[in-house]
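Appendix B. Raw example, untouched.
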Amino acid sequence: MRVIDENNKSIEEGSRGEVVFSGPHVMKGYFRDPERTQQVLIDGWMHSGDIAEVDSNGFIYIVDRKRI
C-alpha cells in the first residue's frame, strides 16, 4: 500500500494523495467491465479513490474521496 501524488510518486509527510494497493489480494478486474478496470488498475496498482495524508510516524489518515 502506498499514498501517491498525481505523478504516481509517493507523497511526502503531511501531503495528501491517493491510496493505492498492490499484491495477490487485489482484484483482477471488474466483471465484464474492462473500461472501468483500466481506470482503476494501473501498472498492477489498484487506485482506491481514497485521499489520505501520511504523518511523521507513517500512519495513514483517510481524509477525502477522489471519485464516487
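End of appendix B.
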